[in-house]
Amino acid sequence: MTETNTPLIDIRDLHFNWPNEPDLIDIPAFQMNRRDRVFLEGESGSGKSTLLGLIAGVLQPSSGTIRFSGSELNKLSSGKRDRLRADRMGVIFQLFNLLPYLSVIENVVLPCRFSKRRKENALQRSNTIDAEARRLLQRLGLSDERLIHRKVSDLSVGQQQRVAAARALIGSPDLIIADEPTSALDTSNRDQFLALLMEEADAAEAGLLFVSHDPSLGARFDRRIALSTLNEAFSKQHEPTS
Ligand SMILES: Nc1ncnc2c1ncn2[C@@H]1O[C@H](COP(=O)(O)OP(=O)(O)OP(=O)(O)O)[C@@H](O)[C@H]1O
């Protein structure tokens, strides 16, 4: 099994800039393995969501490479990148990216409609995809039958955040990417959510890359990384001028 020796994420000489802007990201090297739990912190606007977008293959680097389990994302066609993301990554986006006209349960089962691998994984945990969606939702405090069939646009922000979390976790992805996933949750829902996230990551032997503004959460992770220490673009922008 070569895959176990290959880093889950392997970044080399990664540069990214938005059009007509200087480098926002300049990361010489970063690796994470399966089962790593990484907490990424940094000030607002420092590029955390941008880095997650690059790792998820939603954004393209200006130069450099990002390998996911050995596959260089840049070298894949956009269709293959989408397939890899659907099969192997569970992403909780900052703005959730839920489909507003679908119900809670329809949103949660979506990854299993797009990916045979996620569907098969989900069926190893529960008898049906629906049952697996309900198990995750229940663990996140969303078990009310009426709520599960409501359109997500009719939910509170904190409820939508938990639906997005259940959708990311279904079907045991190899990498869970979570961008500020607890920002709208109260302490009790936040703790329930983190417990589930850690358990699901353990069960799937997944890597977990978690961005949050809440420094008190950092102690629950194996590695705590400030983006400013990884990202040389940050030190260049903040060099004292003489
Ligand atoms: N589509 C875009 N076009 C141009 N600039 C962008 C775009 N999206 C983000 N930026 C800029 O890139 C920089 C980094 O944004 P990013 O969202 O990655 O930061 P962040 O660290 O995740 O911030 P926050 O903690 O506030 O979510 C910001 O200056 C932002 O204005």
UniProtKB/TrEMBL annotation:
UniProt cross-references to PROSITE patterns, sorted A to Z: ABC_TRANSPORTER_2 (PS50893), SIGMA54_INTERACT_1 (PS00675)
Top-level taxonomic group: Bacteria
GO molecular function terms noted in the UniProt entry: ATP binding
Record's keyword annotation contains Transmembrane: no
Keyword annotations from UniProtKB, A to Z: ATP-binding, Nucleotide-binding, Transport
Keyword Nucleotide-binding: yes
Domain ABC transporter positions: 9-242
Listed PANTHER family: ATP-BINDING COMPONENT OF ABC TRANSPORTER-RELATED, IMPORT ATP-BINDING PROTEIN
Name under which the protein is recorded: ABC transporter ATP-binding protein
Native source organism of the sequence: Ponticaulis profundi
